[in-house]
């Protein structure tokens, strides 16, 4: 099974060939696909799948069905660890028959999605399932960062040109993650400026705005962090001595499972808190940002 093609739509497809001992699965992120000689049913409390409710198509004598990748939908179960989100369900397949005592074919199905953007799809979590279950890995989340004109975060600076701000003016930053699962929250672990376009810019000096999920000084105000799939903060922009007249802003972020943790950082008196384990995503960068005296 290949669940790794699922991105914006966050829907996976699974092709199940009942005629083979080891079912073949391929696709993106639903639960789908049966030979025409089988019925697939859904009862939300028992993890069945109701074919009549889903989109389907017929291709080479196989009927493909699509089920949204979301916890609780038609009995889909979501579990997470520090690196992956794992969606699982049992598929009950009933051969077409007039008898009411037909024994179904039961196929455990799971799909593991890395919570780290750079995680290789060649390595994935294998949940413990019954023998013969179907397993696969999914695509990673993607993040983007923008600078806004105002504190209402409504108008975005044009990213095709350097952002020019007066020294000491406020920098309004929004970070967003493309992810359909509402159980996750985006958490900014740290944000800093440097003269390098690369997040790990070697010996380049870093000026931290957020560190260990908390502001480093009173000039940084966090509006939203650990609540939803976006994070917002504002910070005053100052010239950095001994550097070039422009800076790049870098943020490291992670996804937090709101069902298991309190994802909103608690930052009292600028003391960095200990935080629950969560999967880090790749850093996001914006810039260059220049200033006017």
From TrEMBL:
Signal peptide: none annotated. The keyword Aminoacyl-tRNA synthetase does not apply. This is Uromodulin Tamm-Horsfall urinary glycoprotein. The lineage of its organism: Eukaryota, Metazoa, Chordata, Craniata, Vertebrata. Pfam families: Zona_pellucida, ZP-N. PANTHER family: ENDOGLIN/TGF-BETA RECEPTOR TYPE III (PTHR14002), ZONA PELLUCIDA LIKE DOMAIN CONTAINING 2 (PTHR14002:SF31). Residues 5-274 form the ZP domain. Keywords: Disulfide bond, Signal. The keyword Nucleotide-binding does not apply. InterPro entries: ZP-C, ZP-C_dom, ZP-N, ZP_dom. It comes from the Eukaryota.
């Amino acid at each position: 099974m290949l669940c790794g093609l699922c991105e914006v739509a966050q829907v996976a497809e699974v092709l199940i060939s009942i005629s083979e001992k080891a079912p073949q699965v391929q696709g993106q992120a639903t639960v789908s696909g049966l030979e025409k000689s089988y019925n697939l049913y859904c009862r939300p409390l028992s993890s069945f799948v109701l074919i009549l409710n889903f989109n389907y198509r017929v291709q080479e004598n196989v009927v493909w069905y699509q089920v949204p990748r979301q916890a609780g939908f038609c009995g889909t179960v979501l579990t997470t660890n520090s690196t992956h989100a794992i969606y699982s369900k049992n598929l009950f397949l009933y051969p077409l028959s007039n008898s009411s005592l037909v024994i179904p074919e039961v196929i455990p199905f799971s799909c593991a999605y890395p919570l780290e953007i750079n995680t290789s799809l060649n390595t994935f979590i294998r949940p413990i399932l019954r023998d013969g279950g179907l397993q696969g890995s999914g695509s990673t989340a993607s993040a983007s960062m923008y600078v806004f004109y105002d504190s209402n975060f409504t108008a975005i600076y044009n990213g095709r040109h350097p952002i020019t701000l007066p020294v000491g003016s406020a920098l309004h930053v929004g970070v967003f993650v493309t992810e359909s699962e509402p159980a996750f929250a985006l958490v900014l672990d740290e944000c800093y400026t440097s003269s390098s376009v690369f997040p790990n810019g070697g010996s380049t000096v870093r000026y931290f705005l957020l560190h260990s999920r908390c502001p480093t000084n009173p000039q940084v105000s966090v509006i939203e962090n650990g609540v939803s799939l976006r994070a917002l903060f504002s910070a005053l922009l100052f010239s950095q001595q001994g550097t070039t007249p422009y800076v790049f802003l870098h943020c490291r972020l992670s996804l937090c499972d709101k069902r298991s943790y309190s994802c909103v950082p608690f930052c009292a008196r600028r003391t960095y808190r200990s935080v629950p384990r969560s999967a880090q995503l790749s850093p996001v960068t914006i810039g260059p940002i220049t200033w006017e005296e």
